[in-house]
Design goal:
Layout (H helix, E strand, L loop, with lengths): L2 E5 L2 E3 L5 E8 L8 E6 L6 E6 L6 E3 L7 E6 L4 E6 L8 E8 L11 E2 L5 E5 L2
Parallel strand pairs: 2-11
Antiparallel strand pairs: 1-3, 3-8, 4-5, 4-9, 5-6, 7-8, 9-10, 9-11
Length: 124
Amino acid sequence: QVQLVESGGGLVHPGGSLLLSCSASGIGDDLYRIGWFRQAPGKEREEVSCTSRADGNAWYDASVRGRFSMTRDETKKTVHLQMNNLKGADTATYYCARRRMAWGGCHPSLYDNWGQGTRVTVSS
């Protein structure tokens, strides 16, 4: 079965960077179905980045656009989320998940096979 494991979270100062990784097993040539999400304490889970279109370009939430970048390593079955210029508002637990359909949107309700999450804290 599909298993996703996130790593790379931690404590970082505002303006700093982190590289999150989502290692996938039990997955075929459909790494593009994996997206990144986050959930801050007391808030609903929200989408951060996913690949929703056949052109393969990544979509980013407006709050992270220009600061975050999602890449895929097909040989290692890993999806990375490079996070730069981090802000306090980025503090959350970050999850990766796989979309049930090959193509579609980025809303969390469209995804399953969630990982356990990795905690990111941005604080001075």
